[in-house]
């Protein structure tokens, strides 16, 4: 028999989480401040608890997904007694500091981050990051895998939140670069849809640079096996000039250029692009 789970918070994400547990056959209890949001889940077999306390007591695994950490404290803070002996999994986005503070709610705490939109939850493409009590992750792994592909990063409860923002930063950086490129090509009447296949193909190549540079960063040496920072900088200037000539915003390429210039000013001539890590570390 599948373990009984509780889902607290039935916003867009919480509803998807509860639906995935239900679909996988877990007895699922739910609670939400506005109870109306439970209607579809109840129709699908979930039990709507009358209070957060009753909801917590119904599950051995308690998943909470609210707007922010303050809401988690508001809703669960008064129910520490009910949480005792259960595992709390916080899937609310927040900082690593907030995650560490939430461990005060219970002895068995896992923090998680969801790298997926609600419609993907329950499929392997959804990937979820966890950190916190290892034993709790091992014990509840089967249930957590119902939500997507679950990865555990370590005992520090803040790690999942740190991975989350680092990965989101990667997403925004990539998307900004795509949008800037689409604006640049758009000035020459090229549709974004024509650019997109080349953009995705190039992002694929860039993933290989990531792997190579990760090795250099970890070894603390940046040999110019592919190209030097100076070679990159010369080409960056074309991106700035083309942007200005096209009359599109130059802020993004100018920042890219400024980062490379700072690396060179700090003495990283003749090194690979990975030496920019020193700029991001605040040492250049
Ligand atoms: P929603 O805005 O749809 O839902 C927010 C939920 O929080 C609702 O259940 C709301 O209750 C509840 N809530 C907020 N404040 C309080 C409070 N003080 N007391 C009680 N309940 C409260 O957001 P999502 O479901 O989309 O997101 C939830 C979390 O999941 C966020 O941290 C988000 O970053 C994260 N997430 C969301 C993703 C997405 O694609 N949606 C992707 C990855 C992570 P009520 O219904 O009563 O207002």
Automatic annotation (TrEMBL):
<dbReference type="InterPro" id="IPR051265">
    <property type="entry name" value="HIBADH-related_NP60_sf"/>
</dbReference>
<feature type="domain" description="6-phosphogluconate dehydrogenase NADP-binding">
    <location>
        <begin position="5"/>
        <end position="151"/>
    </location>
</feature>
<dbReference type="InterPro" id="IPR015815">
    <property type="entry name" value="HIBADH-related"/>
</dbReference>
<dbReference type="InterPro" id="IPR036291">
    <property type="entry name" value="NAD(P)-bd_dom_sf"/>
</dbReference>
<dbReference type="Pfam" id="PF03446">
    <property type="entry name" value="NAD_binding_2"/>
</dbReference>
<dbReference type="InterPro" id="IPR006115">
    <property type="entry name" value="6PGDH_NADP-bd"/>
</dbReference>
<dbReference type="InterPro" id="IPR013328">
    <property type="entry name" value="6PGD_dom2"/>
</dbReference>
<dbReference type="InterPro" id="IPR048666">
    <property type="entry name" value="RedAm-like_C"/>
</dbReference>
<comment type="similarity">
    <text>Belongs to the HIBADH-related family.</text>
</comment>
<keyword id="KW-0560">Oxidoreductase</keyword>
<feature type="domain" description="NADPH-dependent reductive aminase-like C-terminal">
    <location>
        <begin position="156"/>
        <end position="281"/>
    </location>
</feature>
<protein>
    <submittedName>
        <fullName>NAD(P)-dependent oxidoreductase</fullName>
    </submittedName>
</protein>
<dbReference type="Pfam" id="PF21761">
    <property type="entry name" value="RedAm-like_C"/>
</dbReference>
